[in-house]
Amino acid sequence: NQKIGIIGAMNEEIELLHQQVKKASHFVKAGISFYEGHFYGKDVIFCKSGVGKVNAAVCTQAMLDAGATSILFTGVAGALDPKLAIGDIVISSSCIQHDVDVTPLGFKRGEIPYQARSEYVADKTLVRLAQEAGENLFTGRCLVGKVLSGDQFIASRSVVDELYRTFGGACAEMEGAAVAQVCDMNETPFVVIRSMSDKADGSAHVNFAEFTIQASEHSFLMIQEIVKGL
Ligand code: ADE
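^ thats the input. predicted complex w/ adenine below
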């Protein structure tokens, strides 16, 4: 029996879930509130992880321990790919932690030493469902690409260029690859859906404040369609 886990990092990112999911029960683990209920006839569990990789990792493990059989991440990100405009959607092909740097010991940028993988591939079925949702809801404004995560808010054109060149990332955010790593460790399917709140440049802080609510709604609409299709 499937139980779909849905995670957002901030209030704005889970607000519409609070409004739309029929909540049945609630518990707290590691200071994080988890809500279980029903959404389009499916069993779901959702929560606000808090910002950053450690919060996202702890939250994901707790959600899997509570029986989640797949994880969808919903939220906003800074665009790295120049094709992306504010409000556009990125569906994760894979996730990697751009702030992992053990290059002095000969490892690649983003490579976690002595691990089988440092880049985590999203579930094929979830990506396909997301692509179908994107084609219907955001025609021409949705791409499948690499999601870069780090404990940094990116707000510089030179950093954007450097991340895009080094990793070929579509967008930068602060949780996806942590969720992805925990899912990989637990052999659980995941996908990250991000709508662009900003372009991670010198205007990022202003755009983030202005567009986070709208971008969060775009991401929620994607999640809604994916849940319907599951
Ligand atoms: N989330 C939204 N915009 C972001 C940015 N520019 N950097 C990191 N995380 C973000």
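The radius of gyration is 16 Å.
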